[in-house]
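Step 1: inspect the first sequence and its tokens.
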Amino acid sequence: MRTHLGDIRIFDQSAVVEVRTKVFSLTTAFGFGSAMSTRIATTLSDLVRQLLQNSEPGSMFVDLEDAQGQLILGLRFLTSEAVQITPALREVFDDVRQLSNGEAVKEITLRKTIRNMPGSLTPEFLDFQRDRISLKSRAALVEELREKNQQLERYNAHLEELVRERTKELELTNHRMQRDLDAGAEYVARLIPEPITGQISIDWRYVPSEELGGDAMGYHWLDPDHMAIYLLDVTGHGIDSALLAVSIINVVRGASLPGADFRNPSEVLKQLNQSFTMDLHGNKLYTMWYGVFHRPSRTLTWGGGGHPDALLYVNDSREPIRLASGGPLMGMIDWPHFETDSIVIESPSSLFLYSDGVFEIHKEDGGEWTFDEFVDFMNMSVPKGDTKMDDLYRYVRELCGCEQLGDDFSILEIRFNLPDEPGNVVQGAGASI
């Protein structure tokens, strides 16, 4: 028996992020661990990139199958041309097939057995998964609006004067909306502390996207010995995403989570995950990296959910230590414990904390800048008289051929120039190069 859960249209680069995000949420709900969910989502986003090279990329259909008592997650892709099935797909899925359904349609079928289903498949559970999949991305809404505008032009050509009047009204509305978005961006920027210099120097760059995203970041001393450093990214764009980001960051700045020790990243992340859930905040999820630096021991302890690795450069090294956060996307599911890692900071060192808007760049030639290419760029030396953050911002604008990026550009640089102290410096178990 097959139960259809929904489908996702694949028509531009935004489908890469949409498929990755929704599949990660779905597989996590069906009991796959965070690591496996990440592998599944990553291989599917790579497949979507291949499909986008076809003349008609098609759609992805999500089904739940009951095969002789086994519960199977089935994913079907209908597209205009065949694609190369990568070894990564065969490693992740139990069954991978590519079939020809006539001259114009190719079907790719991927099946994965669900072995650790949490709870039972109630109608409410299935309806929630359908709602999650059917939640339209901004790109899909824009595409629907474009199609409706074309219909309006075809069927109402004789109402040109009315259209002109309506356009004037919309221009006024858009002007007011843009003014509100600009004001919102200025407010978010004012929440970020001023750069500081000294033994611990912190600088940042925050450039909001045209539609204003959901990035927020900050840092402050919890007491004379402990400094908190944090950055979050709410899904989506617009005022609603920005308001949620501001709400979360204000809770962190004000240390207003009852019962949470803000020197303990695990407690902070757990309480935030429970307090700002997607069902209470318009289905908005967010990623977050939260760390605490203990000055006397020079120890940085961190954790997070769904957020990109922070990059730590020790001395003059051209290869970073990646400070990864292994928790799930924040606000999605109840998570009993967020794991943390620690590392003793050598001096001098530089730590870069950022959102995905600094590296998920749609290049002018139609391709995408990869995360590894981003790290390679960060490893390069900085032109004399420049900063790595400004050098990065200039470069990504050159890549996309645009003055304003499609997502918020948010990055923190923390430089540790601590006085020499006796004793050996060791690397924490959770850091990886």
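Step 2: inspect the second sequence and its tokens, then contrast the two.
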Amino acid sequence: MRVGIEKVNLYGGRAYLTIADLASARGGSLAELERRQMVPYEARAIVPPYEDPVTLAVNAAERLLTDADREQIELVVVATESAVDFGKPISTWVQRFCRLPAHSRNFEVKHMCYGGTAALRVAASWVASNVRPGKKALVINSDLSRTRNHVQTEDDDLGELMAGGSAVAMLVSAEPQVFELELEKAGYWTNELSDALRPNSRTEIITGQTSFYSYLDALEETYERYEHLVGEVDFETYFRKNIYHAPFPGMTKVAHKTLLNRLGVYDKAAIEASWRERVADSTHFARRIGSAYGASTFICLLGMLHAGTGFAAGDRFSVFAYGSGCQAEFYSGLVGPDATTYVRGLDVDQHLDSRVRFTVDQYEQVEKACEVNIDERTYHPLGQDVGDLYAQRYDGQRLLVLEDVRDYHRHYRWS
């Protein structure tokens, strides 16, 4: 049975901050930041107080689903490391506000940036089991960063760049028009490690160097396992393009270099040319969003499919997912017959272009408001609007927003 992604959609919020503005405000050099990042960032998403992982998830899924899709969905899996409750899963709100059948199974999964891949693999295996022929799964990864005052990193200026919020929703079925998973071709590797933590509702701790090298160790281990299961492959010909988890876009360069070194390629010019041909297009949307956590690999897949150059339907892409803690997976899939046409039809660039550009001062006002709300029993986020954003980009647009929190109960409504 063919199984994989039938539809996909990205929701990148309604406001953004340019990295140039942020670098200037922090007294740093944009050129130096770009040198250290290796692949320049353009912007990072800003999530206002009246959006959260629930609204991000629903707003990503709403554009994706038709009434016919809704009737066929019997499994909903939401991956997040930004849950709004320690017990109640985001998936319950998704089931409600996306108007999905009551006779469906829903749950939430957590594994840092691996969560989205875990959710996809579970959903794909369920579809492949054919226990409910013709039925489909909705998989969403929804995340946002902590406020900068509560993110502890070894490098503060880079840490602030690696922040943001977004969601990717995927319809998984036996009609993989976008990307067909090769379910049996997957190498995975796990290793207990505390390279990133969210020990409470306020704090995010990122041990950059430890996470960096763990990522690379996991990449080599999972690729070796992939070959162990599939048989030795010619990397250059077996995979047409390569998708990597991108906590920042430049990490794709380091990852690709690591695999090429393992295969005996050390020439710098050859490595750069290979990255530009096989990887660079995947960073197209990632450069405009900031950190996407578990949605990262899917945003990179969207970027590659949007470019639509150097591959054809049926070509094989490799995909590498990494989540701190840690879990990693190297797997592969085939480009669907309508992939590029479909992804371009989403007009993600227009969606990102339509966001409101915030100043650094406005961004800091949003951060302060969100920080005040953490763990509050009652608050009214719609009264904390900044820059008239709600009137400009939400009012009348039928986007889900957090209306208020009363005695810890969250109340949502459509804008």
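Step 3: confirm your contrast with the notes below.
The longest strand covers residues 179-190. The chain has two domains: 4-177+348-414, 181-337.
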